[in-house]
Design brief:
The protein is of the alpha+beta class. The chain has 2 domains: about 70 residues, Arc Repressor Mutant, subunit A (Orthogonal Bundle), CATH 1.10.10; about 55 residues, Dna Ligase, domain 1, CATH 3.30.1490. The protein has 5 helices and 5 strands. The strands form 2 sheets. Strands 4-3-5 form a 3-stranded mixed sheet, with no helix packed on it. It has a two-stranded antiparallel ribbon with strand order 1-2. α2 crosses α3.
Length: about 130
């Protein structure tokens, strides 16, 4: 894959983020670098097809991107403040085994964001 300024900058932004980001989030971080939003989308499409990034879809239909890791991870997102918390483990390995034993269907991949209410919002009564 050809190295370009946009690819290097997008990879850098995603590598420095602890949470998945939208294309608009990345664009905001790169505003002063003369990189267009359409270039970011093209880069993310390329990175997704090359398995450099993982693309998830949130409950509003928005695409979220994060750097592909050997041990994938999942996120919790508060429906009120939209704070995201990274899980350092996959709670679905046992679920996938159960699906396979009951249906003979083998799950190759999954992307999951769990939605709920964070402790701070519960304390505030939201």
């Amino acid at each position: 894959m050809k190295k370009t300024k946009t690819r290097e900058k997008v990879r850098e932004v995603l590598s420095n983020s602890n949470i998945p980001m939208t294309a608009a989030d990345i664009y905001e971080k790169l505003k002063g670098d003369s990189i267009t939003l359409s270039s970011i989308y093209r880069t993310l499409d390329t990175f997704t097809s090359e398995e450099i990034v993982v693309k998830d879809i949130d409950n509003s239909g928005t695409a979220l991107y994060s750097i592909h890791q050997e041990n994938h991870c999942h996120y919790l997102e508060c429906k009120n403040c939209h704070n995201k918390i990274k899980l350092d483990y996959c709670p679905y390995h046992n679920v996938n085994k159960k699906i396979k034993s009951k249906t003979k269907f083998e799950v190759d991949e999954h992307g999951v964001i769990l939605y709920g209410t964070c402790e701070n919002c519960r304390k505030k009564g939201k």
